[in-house]
Amino acid sequence: EGARVLVYDGCTDVKDESKARVIEIPVGFCVIFRGDLIHNGMAYDRVNHRMHCYLTFRGLKWEPDVVSNVLPPHFECQYCGIKLEESNAMRYHRRYCLSNPKAAENKLKRRAPPKRKGPYICNVCEKPYDNDSSYRTHVARGHAKKQLTEQ
């Protein structure tokens, strides 16, 4: 799987989102473009290695970071370096990232059994419930209305 680059076709000073275009770069291919092409890398699923080189010519005044400020918001995993565009996806990834020393512990916590087992018994009608959420829903829907009508 190759890398992807987001380019802003025809933009040289300011990016125009309407001109954004994704370009797939197959493995082994080389892309050469002028230094004033506004572009940025994109999030990727697997680690990929890329080389960035700058070609310069005598008499050409150009700074390598001239187009560096067009990156869309992205989030980077501090454990493995993968970049994702959504914070929720990154939060989930970080929690279970194989490079995270607490990943195994986090996985166990996620599957931990409930701390208190049922039955939950209603104080008013003595009806039993196996889980807490069903019991709370029963009390909120059923007995709140009954208590108001009895008063």
From TrEMBL:
Residues 131-151 are annotated as: Disordered. InterPro entries: Znf_C2H2_type. Coiled coil: none annotated. Residues 122-143 form the C2H2-type domain. Residues 138-151 have a biased composition (Basic residues). It comes from the Eukaryota. This is C2H2-type domain-containing protein. It comes from Phytophthora fragariae. The lineage of its organism: Eukaryota, Sar, Stramenopiles, Oomycota, Peronosporomycetes.
